[in-house]
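Re: [help] complex structure
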Amino acid sequence: MTDALTIAIDAMSGDEGPGVVVEGAEMSRVRHPEAKFVFVGDQSRIEPLLAAHTDLQSVSQVEHAPNIVAMDEKPARALKNRRGTSMWESINCVREGRAQAIVSAGNTGALMAMARYQLKTIPGVDRPAIAGIWPTIRGESIVLDVGANVGSTDRQLVTFAIMGEACARFLFGLERPSVGLLNIGIEDLKGTENVKGAAQTLVEADLPIRFHGFVEGNDIGAGTVDVVVTDGFTGNVALKTAEGTARQISHYLESAIRRSFLARIGYLLAHGAFRTLRSKMDPRHMNGGVFLGLNELVIKSHGGTDALGFASALDVAIDMATAKLPRKIEEDIRHIYGDDISVIDEIANGSNGQEKEAAVS
Amino acid sequence: MTDALTIAIDAMSGDEGPGVVVEGAEMSRVRHPEAKFVFVGDQSRIEPLLAAHTDLQSVSQVEHAPNIVAMDEKPARALKNRRGTSMWESINCVREGRAQAIVSAGNTGALMAMARYQLKTIPGVDRPAIAGIWPTIRGESIVLDVGANVGSTDRQLVTFAIMGEACARFLFGLERPSVGLLNIGIEDLKGTENVKGAAQTLVEADLPIRFHGFVEGNDIGAGTVDVVVTDGFTGNVALKTAEGTARQISHYLESAIRRSFLARIGYLLAHGAFRTLRSKMDPRHMNGGVFLGLNELVIKSHGGTDALGFASALDVAIDMATAKLPRKIEEDIRHIYGDDISVIDEIANGSNGQEKEAAVS
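Output below.
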């Protein structure tokens, strides 16, 4: 039995607008005949695009939302002007149960602020995290948090480990994904107090998690573990440093090739190989950051994505919604923390006001 | 007038031993006829190597130190067993004024612990930092701290900015190097309290520093600024993530080339280009991490370096010693903090015991 699934789509999001979004949905529909879509945005722009894809049209609805959140809009401002934006209204579809996940290629900060505001965190989770899907030598790994927070307590890092592990189980189909804590050395005595505290809990608390121990920056690309846990500051710097290094090497490669005639001939012959390489280094393959820790599923697609990238974000949303990921995380958290959850919720509620400030600033 | 300069060399350090060290010194001697060397280590192994290079021998002394600090030795243990090690005795040469800088390819943690113990920090500096020389699209940048500390206050970050700026001035010959603070966004409101506090001081305190503002992870490889300031945890993760990404791309490139016959032919033709690329990605070009904030100069060469890499670390040591970098940093710190220095020294002395624990654990 496959339940019908509906994905809400922020159709006005991303640099390329609804054309790319509709093309992406068409690609994803072919792979997921069980899925339905709600396109939220400017009806007059979406409907003509859907009319060109009758199969997609037959499993889709359009919900009119005339306003757009700008890519550079401050989260606080976006939250203030939320009514009638495609972002807010598409999240609302999920809140009201008319969809099981929402995908947006829009402004990350605004999306997180609006999603927290409408969907709230899972009981026991005081901070949501953004999980990135990182290509590695061995395949793919989940890295979290890549930028929802600026600092994390040891308890938050443990929660990230629980959420990331659940995510890897369903996204990669692994029974027991391995989890590592990002640190500046693999010896027990190194690292910040928060990292050491989180490691101690993961070792001692007898959690149903295959904890590998500490990993270092170079272990991410090597694929040493399936899930890399870190605070949002370090994770974001690591992600952008890796992107920068890939761009730097592309630059070196191009200028090395331009330098001689033989190199250019060689490049032409090896063209297929370079295309493979470029595709491996393509940020679209990291498309689909998942917001973990909210009561419903929110998937962030890269702002500059094309239809292929948007389709891959939709695929992630459909897989995660089929697995009912937020409910699994809720069960895991309850199983691990038990009655202790109320304490966390107090902290979460007590600091929600403050955190909202941080998230939307 | 060029003063005679003496560089103390931990001759037993590094994976390859004194052979590589002596070869490296010979290369550096040719470029720096004003330099003299003190080789510290096992006399019976160093002297025969020097005998093969009579020009080098004529500007060198050998100081016998029979013991070696192992690469995997814990800093606390190394410090306990310091007497008679080539590392300790070579630092001692600098402490006693018989050399103006010391270069070692040994155990980083042990080197930092021994150097702090013998040389102490510059007045006003409570934490030394390790400055890495990072290849960028535009040339080279200084990144600090890349691993001496696990966390940094805003005041420490400001001190890193002052020290990194002085380092870039003399190492790259720049009159006004630009300085950026590593953050997860370039907007003023993002980041940790420490990073925001450091930015505020760098903007408001009217320091003689060309402060660019915040930079992100991808700006490091792009060479957006000459000096990137960050705490030791983030800097170390960024450095190792960049190394891991470079290794990952090499791996993709190799497997892409192996995949087809044409690609292999192309690779052979473009061989020179690939050699250039590999040399750009070679960690030896990042050789020569500088310990900043100590009263004397300590240069760390990569443990797995060859003679070329060791020579480049010696060149850095000679340039920095000629510029009298620690004295310049001392002047800069005094100029900026003035009488306020005593407060910092109190903090530094008060927490020295604790910090030593951290550094040597």
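Chain B is about 50% helix and 15% strand.
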